Amino acid sequence: xxxxxxxxxxLTLPSAPMLAEEMLPLLSRAExxxxxxxxxxxxxxxxxALIKAVLQVPQVTITIDxxxxxxxxxxYRSFLEVPxxxxxxxxxxxxxxDTAERTFSEKESVLLRGFARLVLEQLWLWHEVSRDALTxxxxxxxxxxxxxxxxxxxxxxxxxxAVVLFDLDxxxxxxxxxxxxxxxAALRAAAQTIQGELRASDRLGRIGGxxxxxxxxxxxxxxxxxxxxxxxxxxxxxxxPGHEGLSVTASFGLAxxxxxxxxxxxPETMLEAADQALYRAKRAGRNRVERAxxxxxxxxxxxxxxPDADDAPQANTPAATIAKLCASAHxxxxxxxxxxxxxxxxxxILAFASSRx
Length: 357
Description:
Elements: E1 6-7, H1 16-27, E2 30-34, E3 37-41, H2 45-55, E4 59-64, E5 67-70, E6 78-86, E7 89-98, H3 106-130, H4 140-157, E8 161-168, H5 171-178, H6 180-197, E9 203-208, E10 211-217, H7 221-236, E11 250-257, H8 259-262, H9 267-283, E12 289-291, H10 318-329
Parallel strand pairs: 1-6, 11-12
Antiparallel strand pairs: 2-3, 4-5, 4-7, 6-7, 8-10, 8-11, 9-10
């Protein structure tokens, strides 16, 4: 049974493709660790629980741009669906399902349209609070949450993960020489330039001031270094709109963790290791990339210095295989964000034919 669309005109949401590519991993089931167990959490958990209680249904699904971000697979005999509308465009749907034969009433349809408004408002709120207002990069808090999630996923899936920190060189001089408006323009242009070089699964965050961080799932140190070098070159070639005479460079530091290291890692120690590598890059002359010797375990977080050649993965080893996969996926000729042999999204998709209009 298809209900009339739920419309919510005042909200300005990102386009559906942007929601699908950038926000879905943020909105889908996040993972936290409590008492040694992985616990699923969802930003829609309260709304979903309320819908289940009010409409007395066992299942609720939320779909954005054809991808399910809430719900679980199963066999159901009846459902009621409300399209989610942004302006005049359908961006997704809210659906309730029951295992029993059931005819939903008009009152229940009206209630579901009201709940759809809550879902749309939640989407908008998550987009607003998770993004830095100037650059649209993730805020520090949300970047840390995404890093925690990536470390858990790396441990469970047996994949590496890397973090790249970069800092715009001589940013105070830019502000002093060209003015703060030029500094803001440089920050915006830098974020847009970096975002354009990343895959949909990567994350860009503004950690503070002129410092940014990039989260690279399924990426080892060798591959992360190649990515960082590509980002460095992109920034050096960047044109700042309205300030064409302004040149910008950045210094980069990176840290990576193999799956077995990710299990004992924390975002703080990983970022600290990358930060120390970043400062080595600054001391070495800026506009360069440096790597942490050991990435993320607490006992190595304070380590500094360049990695030894002996640490490079040898041929025909698992580490070498991972490195090849990473390098292939981040190759400049295929840089439009192909995942590193990525697994299907964990968010469940119902075994129904798609109802997208």
